[in-house]
Specification:
The chain contains 18 helices and 13 strands. The protein is of the alpha/beta class. The longest helix is centred in the middle third of the chain and has 25 residues, at 210-234. It starts with 5 loop residues before the first helix and ends in a 6-residue tail after the last helix.
Amino acid sequence: MLYRKIERYIEEHLRSDSDKILLLEGARQVGKSYIVREVAKRLYVNFVELNFVEDEEGAKLFKEVHTTNDFYMSLSMFAGEKLDKYENTLVFLDEIQQYPQYLTMLKFFRQEKRYRFIASGSLLGVTLRSTTSIPVGSIIRKEMYQLDFEEFIIANGFGLEAVTLIKEKFRNRESLSEPQHNKLMDLFRRYLIVGGMPDVVNTYLETHNVVKVRELQNSIKGLYADDASKYESNNGKNLLIKRIYDMIPSQMENKKKRIVFKDVRNKEGERFDKFQEEFEYLISSGISNAVHAISNPHFPLLESVQKNLLKLYLNDVGLLTSQLYGRNAKPILEDERSINLGSVYESVVAQELKAHGYKLFYYDNRSKGEVDFIIDDYNNLSILPIEVKSGRDYTIHSALNKLTSDEEYNVKSALVLSNEREVKQNGKIVYLPIYYVMFIDMQDNEELLEF
């Protein structure tokens, strides 16, 4: 079983006195159902799993249910022998977005306390936008992502003690030894190929076969495309979601790396508002990570965002490299100088920061240039710029220099992530090896205060 950090969160919630219902959100194939199933079977004598997609395709026993009494009747028909009482029975409502009425019913399940409930969904971000009655006070929404790099190295044999000690090096701004650095860089490059989708990671660990890895990644991409097509047909619209999704890898190779709206339909004069619903789907479904432009960055960054300028990254770096390089893993594994991995490095940093709780922005100023990422620095009530470098020119970053030297923005420090082993500092700029991104975490950024 793959180590997942969210497992502890789920277990602590189910062991707690809280009667709120945990609603686990995330893109398809990130492992939501599996992790809930594993925790539930360990904690509960009676566990019932309802997959509403399977019900829709089969008996439709739960489809037309709109009251809790009718639900309990259908539930008893489905798994009566597994139902007992609240303390020892957990009911898992999987793919809840398939039957949106259950999102509203969660409030009543909580109030009645017949059984304990937990729910998950793959397109909840999309569904919740069109759900009129969300039981805000009755649920806890928790986002789940694919394996991050820390979880990936643990899957590849790293012990938790090793991870803890490496994290101490990061916090103390210390470098690893050459052999340690080389080991982590080798795994980082493999992560660029494999990504973090649990089924893909397991396939890699079992076979180390790039063909099988790529086949699985292509099937996941196809699944995302099918979901988009169903969304369009269900809403009676002929949108361009798949077209924009397919454009992301090629757009990442452009200098600006952001979506050029005229390229969507090969039509001059197109603007963001023409494709707003498509972008909202791609972002809300979790299959892409949005990074919004900010030209005048001040803490908190959300107040300065320009919503019509954004970059889109695929949600998983393995899906990106499968489209860019196919079955040829050599450019990445051997770090070929002729191949520019800038977009790939940016993609993995985007997914790491997103998974660690950050809202993503980038600095784009017409006169001063562009910085790859900026995130909120809550400890200093400031901003933290991050530049990502895949080549040897990691010390060349004029836009970052200008941003950090501008007193108006109150930048306390900035990071440059690259292949270089040595941790060093030049003024406000700290140079870190790229794998240290796994420790840039919102939970470490926030101070816990009692009030």
